[in-house]
Amino acid sequence: MYIGVDCGTQSTKVVVVDVEQGKILAEASRAHHLDEGENGRREQAPAEWLAALKAAFFAALDKAGVSASQVQGIGVSGQQHGMVALDAEGVPVYPAKLWCDTETSAQNAGLVARLGGEAGCLEKLGLVLQTGYTASKVAWLREQQPDAYQRIESLLLPHDYLNFWLTGERVTEAGDASGTGYFDTRKRCWQLDVFAEIAPELDPTRVLPRVLEAHEPVGIVRSAVARELGLTDQVVVSSGGGDNMLGAIGTGNITPGLITLSLGTSGTVCAYSATPVECDSAMVANFCSSTGGWLPLICTMNVTSATTRVRELFGLDLAAFSEKVANAPIGAEGVTVLPFFNGERVPMLPDASADFLGLTSLNTNQANMCRAVVEGATFGLRYGLELLGDLTAGASQIRLIGGGANSPVWRQMVADITDTQVICPEITDAAALGAAIQAAWCDQRSEGVTLEVLCEKLVHLDTQSLADPHPERVAAYQPIYARYCAALEQRHGGVK
User: Fold this and answer.
1) Which of 195, 277, 329, 450 could be disulfide-bonded to 182 (CB atoms 3.0-4.6 Å)?
2) Bind-site residues for substrate
């Protein structure tokens, strides 16, 4: 029995997996509160993650009808990029600034300039710093909260922090570390010269966690936590990783030829590579995978976060919203939405706001506006997919995950807009499943159990969710996508 945990922006999810039977026994989740403020501030209290993890853990075990004493291992997935700065007692010196926080855009621009622009970033890191990464958050804390900054003894990511709570160990792994902005994604090690530019007063040997190989366990659950959760004293905690990396494992995307696309609060598109990837666009992140390879990806910041805003604006539940989307025609009768409510990462527009374009007295209705925001979020993902170039050009299938993947209308839209077959895993919270699979791999690898075998046993595809692209709709979307790109160019010229 293995537990997978996914600490996301909106909630923490827990899944219980029986590896021997190849079954997902149960899943549960508990919500978090998101603190939002002016200038793009988005923060959370790490204590909320711990409370949600414990509540979801007990709820999932109860649903599964199993005892905590049967658990052999735990794997943790976490929202990437979040800054968890701890003092000498392991207490946060400041709330965790999240991946979607854009308050640090000025610090990011300054760091990019000091590192020699995009070319300098690529040379030093294998990717270009983005506002969402951890680096600019540390620089912001140094400038804006110097008292908190001076008390830093550890700099962790959200999944690192949960592993620290479970085991007492300050470690990380290459996949999640790739998104800090001070990690060399090609050599898979900290880039100390870059870190010195960001935080010159901090000793990296003291504050940065040790980097594990993906297959290495962090350790075992410490006794106090084991007693609290009802675990035995030999429960293994795997290296874990970022939600994108563990989501790839949870969709079986561990070899070339598949695409994982997430319709979550944010959106991601990623594909596995056995070697580092150098792309033409600075918007492509050459991240490491949490399997020992690489996982080049793009991330958009406005997917279900954008559709939820419009849905709630009209007072619609999910069923009514989906009906509105389905009842509007392709192209929403000329309505185009650039859904950048939270700024945007791909394209690089951290200070952007949302635009509803093409509204007239004839086409301004709920159905068109609901469909247009879903189309806009999906066009943004196609825009990113095209940036990945040859890595995804010949992909046979898109494995779709995230909350939006539950919508048949949206699944078909993704298939038609990308002209690629779409299917969902049976469990669409693939990051929690991927964390459980990785935990089993770390625990059983010495016995010859491979990640490929575990994915084959546990990644079950939902055949009822299969959506093949429809030629007529594929053709109909081409001018609509061109209209979206033209609007993007007109409103934010030079982003391509």
Assistant:
1) 195
2) 80-81
Q: In 91-149, which ranges are E strands? A: 96-97
Known binding positions: 80-81
Whether the Cβ atoms of residue 31 and residue 44 lie closer than 8 Å to each other:
no
Is residue 265 within 8 Å of 354, Cβ to Cβ? no
Mean pLDDT over the full length of the chain: 95
Instruction: Please list, residue by residue across 15-44, b when 16 or more beta carbons sit within 10 angstroms of its beta carbon and e when fewer do.
Output: bbbbbeeeebbbbbbbebeeeeeeebbbbb
Residues linked to residue 74 through DSSP beta bridges, in sequence order? 3, 237
For 81, list phi and psi in degrees, rounded to 5.
Answer: 75, -15
Question: Closest Cα partner for 16 from 228, 263, 304, 231?
Answer: 231
Q: Which residues contact 119 (CB under 8 A, 6 or more apart)?
A: none
Domain positions in the chain are 2-244
What pLDDT digit, counting tens, does each position of 446-471 carry? 899 999 999 999 999 999 999 999 99
In tens, the pLDDT along 238-255 reads 999 999 999 999 999 998
**277: left (phi > 0), else alpha (psi -120 to 50), else beta?**
beta
Catalytically active residues are 243
Residues paired with residue 238 on neighbouring β-strands, in sequence order: 217
